[in-house]
Amino acid sequence: MCSDPKILESRAGFDCGQGHRFRRGQSGQTTVFLALSMMVLICFLAFMVDVGQLVHDRILTQNVADMVALSAANVQAAGMNELADLNEEYRLLQRDLLKWLQIMPYADEAQVRNLVRYFKDWMTIVRELMRKANKFFPEYAEAAAYNTLDWYNDRYGDHFEIVMINHPRPLTELVHTPPVRLFSMYLDEPREPPPTSAWFSKKWRCEPAFKLQAMGVPFPYNDILDKPYMKKVDGSLTYMVVHVRRQARPVFVNLPAFGYDVEIPTINAFAGLIPTGGTIEDGKPEYFARFVPLERLGYGQFRH
User: Fold this and answer.
1) CB 255 within 8 A of CB 170
2) Phi first, then psi: what are they for 150, rounded to 5°?
3) What is the pLDDT of residues 259-295, one digit of tens each?
4) By CB distance 3.0 to 4.6 Å, which of 56, 155, 212, 271 could disulfide with 69?
5) pLDDT for 180-226, tens place per residue?
């Protein structure tokens, strides 16, 4: 027990009868400490929110690059399938021409030439369609890429831009297969022979049928089909490489009054795809777009 409470109270800073109390000059220290702790906590929470926003923006930017490249590559795959379909039609025309030339002899040389010209005219039409598809599908692919980018900008704000979109023009390189020799026979100075009868039974009666065969001196017909159906050039690669950038922008939580003044930096994302799965030479329209490493396309320097 305290023999003299006033003396002990003045020396020790507490009252023996009333319990503990702060010394003089220490009042308000808890408030200051709490305020400093709250400021640190707020800055830490702001940092965590901004880091989450940065991760979200990076993932979103990569998704934009992937979707922009995928939409363009899908158009490329459709173009490759169109080329495969047209080339199959070209091959069938060539096959039918060779088959018709085997029906010989023809009455005269003009018949053979007209037949060859008929098939060559159709081949010219198909070849022109292939040329247009090879030329215009790259333009359609690029338009699809920008349309996809516009959709993302409309939804998330005008923060994305295409820095680079690289793809071959034309869609692919095509060459003709080796020339094909055309051979047939025709008759020189043909003359009509007398009819020979043949009998065909029709139910309970027979009727004569006359078959006329041209006669004359056979002559060979030779020609060259110098533009047969087509194939891809060895080493030719159709691809789509896209570089998308998201502009720098303020963070979600920014506290310049507390010395926390930052912004999300510019974010870059890359994507590469190729149409694969089909063949133009064999006429198989089975192309689809597939993601591939940028190193395979020669763009490894654009990796993050």
Assistant:
1) no
2) -60, -35
3) 667 777 899 999 999 999 999 999 999 999 999 999 9
4) 271
5) 999 988 887 655 554 544 444 444 444 444 444 556 678 888 999 99
